[in-house]
């Protein structure tokens, strides 16, 4: 047990045992390979346990201000040792006590002998545990939101640039009516905008657990303040404000409701679904050679096939997005089996599901930012694919033009049907190009409209209001979402691995 816990600190570089230790134990690739430094730190032991100490300081300050026997010297001593944690001692204490919170109470008390009697006064373990988790969730959202804003910004620029470039639409992954490259990007943007609003709401809805005692009744604090309910409420409010929250949950059991975790992680999982769809679309388009993710000069696509340009960034996003989506099952099941005021079978699960959800969301957003900053479009390939399919799509327009020129709709329909089947046979049975247009031009029946055929077949006449939709959507729904993040929007992301 001691060796297992101590190896955690060794991996973190906190034990001074040297870098070789890292090669001897499993390390989560979420941290060792992918995640940003800021998100990795947000869920680090260093931040977790220094936050515990800050919470004990907030509690002592508020208790002192409300008249309990806490001295300035005790508060000052605690503040002066908020950061210098003896992690090895904490490990030794936990191996004896089998209780992580009390292990850190003893470790803090060891370097704060004057303050030792009042550390954790009136509190329960969830005072530091749950309140810290809420702080980490809040700070995690604050890391993710600017990154999501950058992805939306890059993709908005892409949509605007290609708002009018016709491309084949696909339904059932079969060629369909034309759209534009920019309009398709707006489908992705619409989902990302929903994710942005969801994450903003989840972040703003977070409250502090506050000081509630062992079963949420605040009985220990009511006793400390000799039955003064107002002072207990003031204590809760003061600590909540010191921690940077506007509100605390009015009722809790021993813990805050685990539905809060569902709310937070469900929106991350939903964003994972969005990113999986976007990156799957890009992978399909890369197969058609219409759009590609960035590919570096010395990048290798395959160890065997030197010509390969695999969409490895999009594949990574899809792979990790599946993990993010799957993690949602944890808080759903955890919340459903919390007995009465609390059971401890939430703890080990939450140590994994909460950090991994935010770490995974962080990774796929950063990777998607890198993708959207370097998307490559091949207009000539797109044009060739349109030319291959457009004659079939244009048949109704040809019929309408013939009717306007005095022809009979039913006669024209039959002519087009016969010629279309002949052209389809060339494509499917002979492997040739679609020659429907040549057949129309060679048939004397269509002589009245031959002079207008180029206009009838102009791809831009098949994209409807796509460019106008893009412009309005970006202006009214997307750009306003980015306003709060203007100062952080220009940060670029370089993929390291």
UniProtKB/TrEMBL annotation:
Ranges in a coiled coil: none
SUPFAM superfamilies attached to this UniProt entry: L-aspartase-like (SSF48557)
Enzyme class per UniProt: lyase
CDD domains xref list: Adenylsuccinate_lyase_2
UniProt pathway: Purine metabolism; IMP biosynthesis via de novo pathway; 5-amino-1-(5-phospho-D-ribosyl)imidazole-4-carboxamide from 5-amino-1-(5-phospho-D-ribosyl)imidazole-4-carboxylate: step 2/2; Purine metabolism; AMP biosynthesis via de novo pathway; AMP from IMP: step 2/2
GO MF, any single term: N6-(1,2-dicarboxyethyl)AMP AMP-lyase (fumarate-forming) activity
Keyword annotations from UniProtKB, A to Z: Lyase, Purine biosynthesis
One Pfam family, short name: Lyase_1
EC number of the protein: 4.3.2.2
GO cellular component terms, semicolon-separated: cytosol
BP GO annotations: 'de novo' AMP biosynthetic process; 'de novo' IMP biosynthetic process
Reaction equation(s) it catalyzes: (2S)-2-[5-amino-1-(5-phospho-beta-D-ribosyl)imidazole-4-carboxamido]succinate = 5-amino-1-(5-phospho-beta-D-ribosyl)imidazole-4-carboxamide + fumarate; N(6)-(1,2-dicarboxyethyl)-AMP = fumarate + AMP
Keyword check for Lyase: yes
Adenylosuccinate lyase C-terminal domain boundaries: 390-474
PANTHER family: ADENYLOSUCCINATE LYASE
Subunit record text: Homotetramer. Residues from neighboring subunits contribute catalytic and substrate-binding residues to each active site.
Family listed: Belongs to the lyase 1 family. Adenylosuccinate lyase subfamily.
Job description of the protein: Catalyzes two non-sequential steps in de novo AMP synthesis: converts (S)-2-(5-amino-1-(5-phospho-D-ribosyl)imidazole-4-carboxamido)succinate (SAICAR) to fumarate plus 5-amino-1-(5-phospho-D-ribosyl)imidazole-4-carboxamide, and thereby also contributes to de novo IMP synthesis, and converts succinyladenosine monophosphate (SAMP) to AMP and fumarate.
UniProt protein name: Adenylosuccinate lyase
Species of provenance: Oncorhynchus mykiss
